[in-house]
Write a structure and sequence with these properties.
- It is a single chain.
- This protein has seven helices and eleven strands.
- The protein has one domain.
- Helix 2 packs across helix 6.
- By secondary structure, the chain is α+β, with helices and mostly antiparallel strands.
- It is globular, with a radius of gyration of 20 Å.
- The two termini are 31 Å apart.
- Strands 2, 3, 4, 5, 6, 7, 8 and 9 form an eight-stranded mixed sheet that branches. A three-stranded antiparallel sheet has the order 1-11-10, sandwiched between helices.
Amino acid sequence: MIFFIIILSVILFILFFIPLILGIPAVYFTLRLNQRHEIIPYDRKELPHTCMDFFSSCYKDLFSMGFSHISYYKHTGVTNSPDAVTYVGFLYNSKSKVTASVMYAIHGNIRNGYIELASKFRDSSRIVTYNSTSSSSFTYPSHIIMRKVNIKNTEELFHDHLMSVEKLKGSTWLIEPDLRKYMYEANEETREILSYQVEKGLMRVCDDGTTFGPTFTGAFGMVIKEWILFKWFKIS
């Protein structure tokens, strides 16, 4: 019986704690972000075949809820990995003043498709609701409210976002975004978020002066967010 308990304890330790122990130094020594991040337009013909089904399904749902297509964009240069890119379909609902970004991130063999819904208020603050399977590794300034929800149904996601808008400040505080400035504002916001990580001691500027790497505190925070026990405790 004692032998069984020891074996079980070792297995549980390996499953729950080894990823945490190894993950922190791995993130600290390997993760690098840079200021060359940019969002650029692209043609739908450039969209990889692996993204098409996801985009088509999301667009069908969003069109049925009153969204209109604005343009296609892609994110490049956030990490130092040359094969990392996120494809974006940008839409807008003029009635609710909500923008929608259908996003499909590709990093090597990793694929992650999700939707971001965003609303902007008169005081320049904004709220974003997204249903990605992974949490954002960043800490955000107080005027950017990021909400990760486990809602896959697009209509339910939209309803949840509208409810959060009402609870936070109310729809009467919403303003129409300048859709022409989407690329510029998105690029500037990413740079602001990276600078904020440095300000909070979560990231550091590397020797080359343009690349950002996590501090030990930042690496710990990034890994702990994805730690299975942390997720269990958070849900409970």
